[in-house]
């Protein structure tokens, strides 16, 4: 039976910390010493454990490997100059994870155990949290089926785990992106709103084709008409047109980004008008041509705010104003960062102290 009191902790006696070059971190390549694990067996989550980072042992008939019953999340922790650790909006990420779980016929994970387990993990691996500007500890909760069968049906057993890694910004440069009008990331009625492994697997081939053409990422459009923007790569998508922040409204094919929600709130707090609605490719490309598209950017936990410099559309590259002339997105990014690290008041209760 699961309770927050029963987290069994096994510490490593062989920390990899001394080998880490914090000034040269590649996203998602360096993992901290410990991980959190809990298994769902006999209809309930079992007592969680924090153990040294290590491989899992899986049946070759694991349904996550065959049919993709797997979901994940991404959030970040920070450490301030006084050594205090904070996590940004962890409950929002767990809520979304449980929405994803429901869509993929997986069990919800309890919030109290998640919060307690995550805090315990961060206390244990506190020295892994980088403190330089723009860096953080990326937290990756994930859940996958652990059954042993080949029938297409929901598994009876699952594993929930959290691993963490020190990171810098996901994209280090302004992005060249291409409007994707052939492939779709998701479709209405699909599971694009869920943070499911399969959504990312399906995006690899179109992204690879775009990379061959010299683009960092895609601007996904709707799978039916390709007339409306959806997301950008692994991020939500935002435009500034005529001094208004415009972003595609959420739907069954768009991930409800926690960073998206945060940016919208910060923009509103500063009096920037926000429009969440269908955003047509025609409208944005016309604005790019007549000079009213002031800014475009992607936003997400890993990416934070990633400025878009070039939009490729039907064989032509459209250049946007230089980043240092942009009025809104650098300020939104700064404000977001300041709230996360405690330099600005957290008026919305987003920051959770460990
Ligand atoms: C995140 O922003 O946390 C993501 O999930 C992006 C990731 C796939 C790199």
UniProtKB/TrEMBL annotation:
<dbReference type="GO" id="GO:0004084">
    <property type="term" value="F:branched-chain-amino-acid transaminase activity"/>
</dbReference>
<dbReference type="InterPro" id="IPR043132">
    <property type="entry name" value="BCAT-like_C"/>
</dbReference>
<dbReference type="InterPro" id="IPR043131">
    <property type="entry name" value="BCAT-like_N"/>
</dbReference>
<keyword id="KW-0032">Aminotransferase</keyword>
<dbReference type="InterPro" id="IPR005786">
    <property type="entry name" value="B_amino_transII"/>
</dbReference>
<dbReference type="Pfam" id="PF01063">
    <property type="entry name" value="Aminotran_4"/>
</dbReference>
<keyword id="KW-0808">Transferase</keyword>
<dbReference type="GO" id="GO:0009099">
    <property type="term" value="P:L-valine biosynthetic process"/>
</dbReference>
<dbReference type="InterPro" id="IPR033939">
    <property type="entry name" value="BCAT_family"/>
</dbReference>
<dbReference type="GO" id="GO:0009097">
    <property type="term" value="P:isoleucine biosynthetic process"/>
</dbReference>
<keyword id="KW-0100">Branched-chain amino acid biosynthesis</keyword>
<feature type="modified residue" description="N6-(pyridoxal phosphate)lysine">
    <location>
        <position position="195"/>
    </location>
</feature>
<dbReference type="InterPro" id="IPR036038">
    <property type="entry name" value="Aminotransferase-like"/>
</dbReference>
<keyword id="KW-0028">Amino-acid biosynthesis</keyword>
<dbReference type="InterPro" id="IPR001544">
    <property type="entry name" value="Aminotrans_IV"/>
</dbReference>
<comment type="similarity">
    <text>Belongs to the class-IV pyridoxal-phosphate-dependent aminotransferase family.</text>
</comment>
<comment type="function">
    <text>Acts on leucine, isoleucine and valine.</text>
</comment>
<protein>
    <recommendedName>
        <fullName>branched-chain-amino-acid transaminase</fullName>
        <ecNumber>2.6.1.42</ecNumber>
    </recommendedName>
</protein>
<comment type="pathway">
    <text>Amino-acid biosynthesis; L-valine biosynthesis; L-valine from pyruvate: step 4/4.</text>
</comment>
<keyword id="KW-0663">Pyridoxal phosphate</keyword>
<dbReference type="GO" id="GO:0009098">
    <property type="term" value="P:L-leucine biosynthetic process"/>
</dbReference>
<comment type="pathway">
    <text>Amino-acid biosynthesis; L-leucine biosynthesis; L-leucine from 3-methyl-2-oxobutanoate: step 4/4.</text>
</comment>
